[in-house]
Design a protein that fits this description.
Length: about 190
């Protein structure tokens, strides 16, 4: 099993100038290491929508890699996104699924089936590539090559569960953050053209 911190550190090393869309627990870990907040969008109040938002960005900016840091609970709430992503075939789409077997932000309740193989689901849905990692060592050694493969690519990570002490921030301010991030990303992408 891989810790959140170790997984995020490995992904961060391979980020380059990719856009990164995060959700739930992954967001706070990513924000702790990201040096490009202008290319980050955290979805705290739209559980399960990270892959859908990231797909729109990947299709709209095909020359820039898009990384999705999704959770198993979030993906289970929007399984149709796998088929939708696969149908669009964005070669710049890298979908990480942090599989901890729990709904961490709501107190650690188990997901309905903690034995789902998300890599196999992605392959069956039509993703170009799918991988599963259970150790940080194999993730660190293989991820540079994986990030060179044409997508869509799903990377299933076996993560140590860490139930949150507090839930998601559900305030007017937190709800206003994502639209501001999207505007900043739009500006960053248009300035780089």
């Amino acid at each position: 099993m891989i810790s959140y911190t170790d997984a995020i550190d490995v992904i961060h090393r391979e980020r380059g100038d990719a856009v990164c869309v995060t959700t739930m627990t992954q967001t706070s870990y990513w924000y702790a290491v990201s040096e490009r907040p202008d290319l980050d969008i955290g979805i705290a109040n739209g559980m399960s929508k990270a892959s859908s938002l990231a797909l729109g960005i990947a299709v709209g900016a095909p020359d820039r890699n898009v990384i999705v840091l999704d959770g198993d609970g979030s993906l289970l709430m929007n399984l149709g996104s796998l088929v939708t992503v696969a149908g669009q075939r964005p070669e710049n789409f890298y979908h990480f699924v942090f599989d901890n077997g729990i709904y961490a932000v709501t107190g650690g309740q188990p997901v309905p089936n903690p034995k789902v193989d998300y890599a196999k689901m992605a392959e069956a849905s039509g993703y170009a590539q799918a991988y599963r990692f259970t150790s940080v060592e194999s993730l660190a050694s293989e991820l540079p090559g994986v990030m060179q493969k044409p997508g869509p690519v799903l990377i299933h990570l076996a993560i140590v569960g860490e139930p949150a002490d507090e839930g998601v921030d559900q305030t007017w301010e937190s709800n206003a953050k994502m639209p501001a991030q999207i505007r900043a990303l739009k500006k960053a992408l248009s300035d780089s053209v």
